[in-house]
Amino acid sequence: LEQKYNLININYSDFIENYLDFREIANHLSDGIYISTGEGNTLFVNDAYVDSTGVSRDKIIGRKVKDILSEGKIYKGAVTLEVIKNRKRVNSIGNIIKNNKEVLVTGNPVFDEDGNIKLVVINDLDISDLIKLENKISKLQEEEKKSMEEIKFLRHKQISSKKFVFIDKRMQSLIRLVRTVAATDATVLKIGRAHV
């Protein structure tokens, strides 16, 4: 039984080393990954985090999150300390100071078997493209509103500039109704005899 256990343990260790290289996997993610201890000491940052912040690993690995934040040179809106304090997931909008890039920051605690926070895993999702897209949509909606108001104005102007010749009171009432309805997008159903 002990031989089987040792064989399984060797195979598991081999599997972990050869197939689940955490650093390699993390460095292939497009989101920034920041991992600290439960006390707030920086353990790991992936390539995307280094690229987006412009800070080399040797300037943050092993340092306390609190000290890094107090310098105010890398980041605004970090959530690591809040995750440690509240012991639950925290979401926030952060700002990378170097390039003024906005990111959605999600921090998650990782608990040990005794319920203590052993790690805090932070994910930074770049939302600057999303914000640009949102601004474009807002601008297009404003342009659409302006165009609709211009169309409404032109419809009204076209209807009111026409000179109709009539004497009948019913015809005056009908023309007033036509001018009112013409300024809208309402569908009109005409019923009655033709040529009258």
Notes on the protein architecture:
It is a single chain. The chain has 196 residues and is an alpha+beta fold. Helix content is 47%, strand content 20%. It has seven helices and six strands. It has helices spanning 2-19, 22-26, 47-53, 65-71, 80-86, 128-161, 169-182, and strands at 32-37, 42-45, 75-76, 90-96, 101-111, 117-126. A hairpin with a 4-residue loop joins strand 1 (32-37) and strand 2 (42-45). The longest helix is centred in the C-terminal third of the chain and has 34 residues, at 128-161. The N and C termini lie far apart (104 Å). The mean pLDDT is 83.
Mean pLDDT over the full residue set:
83
Catalogue the unreliable spans: none
Proportion of residues in β-strands = 15-25%
Classify the helix fraction into a percent range.
40-55%
Gyration radius (Cα, Å) is 33 Å
Sum up the overall morphology in one term.
elongated
* CA(first)-CA(last) distance: 104 Å
- Helix and strand composition category: alpha+beta
List the helices and strands and how they pair.
Blueprint: H1 2-19, H2 22-26, E1 32-37, E2 42-45, H3 47-53, H4 65-71, E3 75-76, H5 80-86, E4 90-96, E5 101-111, E6 117-126, H6 128-161, H7 169-182
Antiparallel strand pairs: 1-2, 1-6, 3-4, 4-5, 5-6
In short:
The chain is an alpha+beta fold and 196 residues long. The protein is built from seven helices and six strands, in the order ααββααβαβββαα. Helix content is 47%, strand content 20%.
Features:
196 residues, alpha+beta, six-stranded antiparallel sheet, 7 helices, 20% strand, elongated
